[in-house]
Amino acid sequence: MKIVISAALLSLVSVPAFAQAVAPSTSGTMTSADVGVEPIASQSGPNYVLAASDANVYQIKAAQLAATRAQRDDVKSYAKRVLAEAQSSQKALMAALKNDQRTIKAPSSALSADRAALVKLLQKGTEERFR
To answer: DUF4142 domain: which residues (predicted)?
Structure first.
């Protein structure tokens, strides 16, 4: 029993040292290593815009459904927050494309087939599924 407790205490001692080792730099900028992801090298600018817009539009449509069909106030509140964030993200994406130096055209507001199918599933759901 003492060995188990000692091992548990020793594992806690090493946690702060590990956390300090992976803390981001204090230079005010973060790199992909700081957040633990690598950039998608094969993703072109136009393809990124299409994917980001598709994700935003899906979140907007799904959040609108949840905000109107949810029964609980906390679910409605969360849906409204997701809706506001997705709308803000989409607005920022479209604003970034309105630049003389960019040659990426604005994507359509139509969803991809996969995400359109997900919205259809949500639309078929009963109100109790949105609790």
So the answer is: 47-130
